[in-house]
Amino acid sequence: MNRPDTDLATALAADTPIPRDADGPVFAEPWQAQAFALVVALQNKGVFTAEEWAQALGAEIAEAVAEGGCRDGSDYYERWCEALEHLLIEKGLASHDGVDALAASWARAAEATPHGKPIVLENDPERGR
Predict the structure, then answer these.
(1) Residue 25 belongs to what H/E stretch?
(2) Predicted model pTM
(3) Same domain for 51 and 23
(4) What are the Nitrile hydratase beta subunit-like N-terminal domain coordinates in residue numbering (predicted)?
(5) What is the number of helices (H) and of strands (E) in the chain?
(6) 106 in the same domain as 84
(7) What pLDDT, on the 0 to 100 scale, is given for residue 110?
């Protein structure tokens, strides 16, 4: 599905300060690297094309900028995750309800996990009910 702001969105994505150094992307947190790798793997498996990805990411960045979002790149990977979520929903591989339920499960798991321990879904007290 093409969005009317595809060209603008793609241009904004190209102009966004992606966190990087001379060797390529840099990640402030492990989840950022995992999200990056997930998109690369899905694209390599043919789940979506590079053009579809650029359009989805560009649209998310355009929306964030239109809403006064950060232009310094500090929220780049949040936009990355939003684009992935919306693209997977658009392709019928995920649902809004499913994504929301999983996010809630992770939040409960985080709350139930002792400080300093890894957060895993198994820590969600409502999991398996």
Answers:
(1) strand 24-25
(2) 0.74
(3) yes
(4) 16-109
(5) 5, 2
(6) no
(7) 94
pLDDT in tens, 13-54: 455 556 777 777 788 888 898 998 999 999 999 999 999 999
| Residues 6/62, Cβ–Cβ less than 8 Å | no
Per-residue CA distances from 117 to 27, 113, 128 (Å): 21, 6, 21
Q: Within a domain: residue 1?
A: no
Those residues with Cβ within 8 angstroms of residue 93's Cβ, 6 or more apart along the chain or in another chain: 47
CA separation for the pair 56, 83 (Å, rounded):
5
Tokens describing residue 18: 């992606």
CATH number for the domain that contains residue 16: 1.10.472
- Same domain as 101, residue 85: no
